[in-house]
């Protein structure tokens, strides 16, 4: 375990953006696997393409702007550490969190080949998702900005995000209920036979 930590720390030091994007891709992918197997229980109906979409989003569309966002927040300095924690958390949760939620539903629609659904997904899921985000990430960011060294803040939030990504994956999947489609097809076949 110590050698894995050292290797990751070296990777983070040498190539911070690549390390953070790789971390985001792995955590988004893992969150989707958990959503599919533990929340939805899909079992053998596991959808690896869905996991690949989430990992792609995490590594390519979420990781880079969030890594830069944390670089920006880490450069902000305040006379009072307590004031810094409050302001950084406030900035993160009033500027970045609302943008990231809309960004997620928009990119998921595009990656699924359904860009016409962006407006519907955002209007249906945006407010409840932002509210739940605040319940999770306001306390998490207070801990993050209080105790975590700046170079590990992205990683800390990434670990918290594993559970959040599981939630996001499940919410996004609700937009395309395959089981209901199968039930409708079965009902149509039965009605045609009768």
UniProtKB/TrEMBL annotation:
It is found in: Membrane. This is Protein SYM1. Belongs to the peroxisomal membrane protein PXMP2/4 family. It comes from Fistulina hepatica ATCC 64428. InterPro entries: Mpv17_PMP22. It comes from the Eukaryota. Coiled coil: none annotated. It is a multi-pass membrane protein. Keywords: Membrane, Transmembrane, Transmembrane helix. GO terms for cellular component: membrane; mitochondrion.
